[in-house]
Amino acid sequence: MRLLITSLAVALALANSACVTTADTFDVDFVVYDDRFHGFVKKGTKVEVLASDFGWAEGPVWAASLNALLFSDVAANRIYRWNESSGLSVFLSPSGHAPDDAPQSWRGSNGLAIDADGRLVLAQQSSRALARMLAPLSDPVPDYQVLAAEYGGKSINSPNDLVVHQSGDIYFTDPPYGLAGFEQSPAIELDFFGVFRLTRKHDLVPVTRELEKPNGIALSSDQSTLYVSNSEAGNEHIIAIPLDAAGNPGPSRVFFDGRELISDGPGSTDGMTVHPTDYVFASIPNGLGVLSPTGELLGKIPLGQVTNLALDSTSSHLYITTPHRLLRLEINEIH
């Protein structure tokens, strides 16, 4: 299946961009439980505000071939590009449903990834599809190949976040967040909100059905562990799922329990990214947490609600999406 969005829609979306690039910084009172936290974030490090005024920023991914960050504005139905030299620009629009075909406010892409061939893969949540942009990153066009839209003859729910395994398999979460009414949506056809694996042979296989609201997803540096966050209110946690050499999952375990943090502020266990040393930067209530490879919370960075995170190709900067801002934090070089 292929979806081509017209150039007129693209032009209208580009003309309506109202987001701004900023050069502000602000201080944060880090909450430190373990000195290893400062191995990543120096005392006194300021948070940079790179851009603001988004409808709902999400799904950042570093595109090495562009030397730039790509991220979704789900509500605006577009993908932005940011880099050091040129700042913020619209990269792709529409990124999901055509504007006249999606009354929901969550109509654009959510999670993004770059596949082994250097092409952009999108979780098109209100289109209820995992899709790939057919054009190269260097010349983006909203022309998509649908990779997955059904399981067992039923529509999947609402692909949210994804990660590409070194084998070429794609793992993605499928909660109801892109559907009007969320879990109460009459459009739901499956009887579970799951995590799926799309194999290189185009087979769609459930990885787990145990999470009420699977959300963020990431892989360990050696690709042997899949991390998945659950954002169900009152049961916020992250699980770790072992993967064998063929990418098949084993029994999961709780990696991090975030329920005691609920009173800290807005947000949940949501998006995350894994440092090459296997420390995890994860969305938690009221900001982000630095987690050890065994799931210990080393420290918190209070930022309000954080939706997702990405590291650049040198892991020297952590990019942070909040609902309405793109932030950046300098990370120490760890050996």
Describe, in short, the structure shown:
The protein is mostly beta strands. It contains 1 helix and 29 strands. The protein has one domain (2-330): TolB, C-terminal domain (Neuraminidase, 6 Propeller), CATH 2.120.10.
Descriptive key words:
335 residues; mainly beta; 5-stranded antiparallel sheet; 1 helix; 3% helix
Write up this protein:
By secondary structure, this protein is mainly β. The protein has a single domain (2-330), classed as TolB, C-terminal domain (Neuraminidase, 6 Propeller), CATH 2.120.10. The chain contains 1 helix and 29 strands. The protein has one helix at 7-15, and strands at residues 2-4, 20-26, 31-32, 47-52, 57-63, 68-73, 78-83, 87-92, 109-114, 120-124, 129-133, 143-148, 150-151, 154-155, 162-164, 170-174, 194-198, 204-208, 214-219, 225-230, 237-242, 253-257, 272-274, 280-284, 287-291, 297-302, 308-311, 317-321, 325-330. The strands form 7 sheets. It has a 5-stranded antiparallel β-sheet, with no helix packed on it. A 5-stranded antiparallel β-sheet has the order 2-4-29-28-27, with no helix packed on it. The protein has a 5-stranded antiparallel β-sheet with strand order 3-26-25-24-23, with no helix packed on it. The protein is globular. The chain starts with a strand and ends in a 5-residue tail after the last strand.
